[in-house]
Amino acid sequence: MTVRTNLRAATVLATSALALALTGCSADETSAPQKDRASESRSTAPESEQPSAPDRTTGPDDGGDRVLAQVIGRDSIVLTITGVERSASGKSVTVSATLKNTGTKGFFGISAYGGTDASIKARMHSLAGATLTDTANSLRYYVLRDTAGGCLCSTALRALDAGEMVPVFAQFPAPPASVRSVDFQLPTFPNATVSLGAAR
């Protein structure tokens, strides 16, 4: 009885040991490829793309606005027209622009932009000398005035330091609705032809 019992116990132990050994091998064989696949996945996955900084070295320097026309005047002053819009009533047109000193020295010639009409108050440091020309009908429009005799335009302008840019505007009587382009002119600058849409 003792011998048979011992043989049975030995057989059971041997069978258990073999089963454990096979289970261990099976676990190692199945887990290893999974670990390799995970490692491979991490090594080949594309890195998250960082948003690239905007390229500020190209394109016209317009302060971020759209450019309808750009002309260069005296002493490297650049006039950039960014908007030409009729009023909702269709009775006036507003020209929006920027003036930038692209030279290396301060610019003190702002008084030239005021034009020669001495009846306009505070014109010497304003855009009172600007005009809008309907070349198709040979009509020229001057800056509108308020009830006090001042221009409906940028005023109190000062000298421009090197690299400095300022926004400016001027308002004019509106040409007929059929007119689709006009010439904007500011003293010391060439004419700038711009499109003129319908009233909004």
Computed CA radius of gyration, to the nearest angstrom: 40 Å
Number of domains: 2
Largest sheet: 4 strands, antiparallel
Query: Outline, from the CA principal axes?
Result: globular
Number of helices: 1
Low-confidence blocks of residues: 1-7, 16-63
Q: What is the CATH first-level class name of the largest domain?
A: Mainly Beta
Which second-level CATH architecture of the largest domain applies? Sandwich
Q: What is the string of helix and strand elements? A: HEEEEEEEE
* Number of beta-strand segments: 8
Q: What's the assembly state of these chains? A: single chain
Tell me the span between the first and last alpha carbons.
Answer: 111 Å
CATH fold field value of the largest domain: Immunoglobulin-like
Biggest sheet: strand arrangement = 1-2-3-6
Mean pLDDT: 78
Strand content: 25-35%
**Considering DSSP H and I runs of 4 or more, what fraction of the residues is helical?**
10-25%
Structural class: alpha+beta
Write the layout of secondary structure elements.
Layout: H1 2-44, E1 69-72, E2 77-86, E3 92-101, E4 131-134, E5 139-142, E6 165-173, E7 181-185, E8 192-195
Antiparallel strand pairs: 1-2, 2-3, 3-6, 4-5, 4-7, 7-8
Compact description:
With 200 residues, this protein is an alpha+beta fold. The chain has one helix and eight strands; from the N terminus they run H-E-E-E-E-E-E-E-E. A four-stranded antiparallel β-sheet has the order 1-2-3-6, with no helix packed on it. Strands 5-4-7-8 form a four-stranded antiparallel β-sheet, with no helix packed on it.
